[in-house]
Design brief:
16 helices; six-stranded mixed beta sheet; alpha/beta; Alpha-D-Glucose-1,6-Bisphosphate, Chain A, domain 3; six-stranded antiparallel beta sheet; 21 strands; globular
Length: 473
């Protein structure tokens, strides 16, 4: 029986040579091509890019063959390219969509197929469902054009998206002041597409950029996966201390997410990073505009929204919800718990490179070290503490959801439970304004349990109660 392809939180991902094969990729590309043709886009241009995972360049070429075979034209990146650069290329090249061959932060066994709309942002859930419905059951129903024939006919063009993106970044950040700051910046691109970008952007001044894990190695040594959370970031934190660096910037495998470490080699978790970036834009840059956040990220944003009189909108988890809301509200910033942040005046897509540059600009404009910036944020909104547990689960999802509903806890981690929200998973509001969230991953067969609280000593107790509520032993 033919495997049904389902789009999760951010496209489709699967294990290479199991679910993810050239045949299934062709079917997926056919579904996307049919979707675009149904929207009257025949003859228009689509960006195709890819990451440094196993066979990604060949999967990308195959996707390009299917798109051109269906009457679309393709700009194919000349090499592995960060996701935000691919997304901006949609805008720069006046394309109508993009395909990105990447599994982002997944384990090395996986690869993926992301799709983007004419804005360079994630396609909304309704659009993803329509693409799914158009994926044929058999590879025999796929139409493709030979790569060389498509290139000869001018329907497939190899291009370098970097110059347009670099020009855009220069319009958003004063790179020269960062170059002149004399920083020592440690960068960990996690064996991925962000390799070389910070040295390229910041060369020619007093600032030094040091990189680790900056070669192609699709088994991702020294980390479980290229995701900018602990323990994956620990080698980078040690390197930061050993090099006496001023800051650590960590990019995930496709460079759309960012992690931060301070001058002491202490990890700044992704909720604190989001709070810092929003505070930078509101306070240091003096900008105003709505904030879009997923329900799994920090309540510090709600407090900042009240302080600076800007609305805060909450969505389900994933940029398929965040991007449309950003466009609808003309948001200043949008982001999620996984470390992905998007910015006004750019594209409605996570950009780890721009986020890292903004943080460096924050340091330049304030003259403060990362730990001092965090202290300043906490002086405004109070200290917040976050952690999460990812765990595989057995049994079907529906019965697990019923177990969570039946638990009906009155306290979690010793804190009284308020409202239960079921917009995307199960989020229990706690008496201190924090939360416990239990939800199923949209990209992997695991259950995630998250918390944010103002009580440092209760973080682990809240998480353990969450595991019990989910019926995990």
């Amino acid at each position: 029986m033919t495997m049904k392809i389902i789009f999760g939180t951010d496209g489709w991902r699967g294990r290479i040579a199991d679910a993810y094969t050239f045949a299934s990729l062709k079917r997926c590309a056919q579904g996307f091509a049919s979707y675009l043709i149904s929207k009257g886009k025949k003859g228009q241009w689509v960006i195709v890019g890819y990451d440094m995972r196993f066979h990604s360049e060949n999967f990308a070429a195959t996707a390009a063959e299917v798109l051109t075979g269906n009457g679309l034209n393709v700009y194919l990146t000349k090499g592995p390219t960060p996701t935000p650069v691919i997304s901006f290329a949609v805008k720069a090249q006046k394309a109508i969509a993009a395909v990105n061959i990447t599994a982002s932060h997944n384990p090395p066994t996986d690869n993926g197929f992301k799709v983007r709309d004419e804005n360079g942002g994630a396609i909304d859930p309704a659009g993803l469902k329509e693409i799914e419905a158009r994926i044929p059951d058999s590879v025999d129903d796929v139409t493709s054009m030979d790569f060389n024939d498509a290139e000869t006919a001018g329907k497939l063009v190899l291009f370098d998206p970097a110059p347009a993106y670099i020009e855009q970044v220069n319009s958003l950040v004063d790179l020269q002041t960062i170059k002149d700051a004399g920083f020592t910046i440690m960068v960990d691109p996690m064996w991925g597409n962000g390799s070389g970008w910070f040295p390229r952007l910041l060369e020619g001044g007093k600032t030094r950029v040091l990189e680790i894990h900056n070669q192609r190695n699709p088994i991702f040594p020294e980390m479980k996966r290229p995701e900018p959370i602990q323990p994956n970031v620990d080698v980078g934190l040690i390197a930061t201390r050993d090099s006496d660096a001023d800051v650590l910037i960590i990019l995930d495998g496709d460079a759309d997410r960012v992690g931060l470490g301070d001058e002491n080699g202490v990890f700044i978790d992704q909720l604190r990073a989001y709070g810092l970036l929003a505070y930078y834009l509101l306070e240091t840059r003096g900008k105003r505009g709505p904030i879009v956040k997923t329900l799994s990220t920090t309540t510090m944003l709600n407090k900042l929204g009240k302080m600076y009189d800007v609305p805060v909108y909450e969505t389900g988890v994933g940029f398929k919800y965040v991007a449309p809301k950003m466009l609808e509200t003309d948001a200043l910033i949008g982001g999620e718990e996984s470390g992905g942040y998007a910015f006004h005046g750019h594209v409605p897509e996570r950009d780890g490179i721009l986020a890292g540059l903004y943080f460096l600009d924050f340091m330049v404009k304030t003259g403060k070290k990362p730990s001092e910036l965090l202290e300043e944020l906490f002086a405004k909104v109070g200290a917040h503490y976050y952690d999460r547990i990812d765990t595989p689960f057995s049994g079907d999802r529906a019965s697990r959801e019923q177990t969570i509903l039946d638990a009906n806890p009155k306290t979690i981690g010793g804190l009284k439970v308020g409202e239960l929200l079921t917009q995307d998973g199960f989020r229990f509001t706690l008496e201190d304004g924090g939360f416990l969230l239990i939800r199923f991953s949209g990209t992997e067969p695991i259950l995630r349990v998250y918390t944010e609280t103002t009580h440092k000593d209760k973080v682990q107790a809240i998480l353990q109660d969450g595991i019990k509520i989910a019926g995990i032993k």
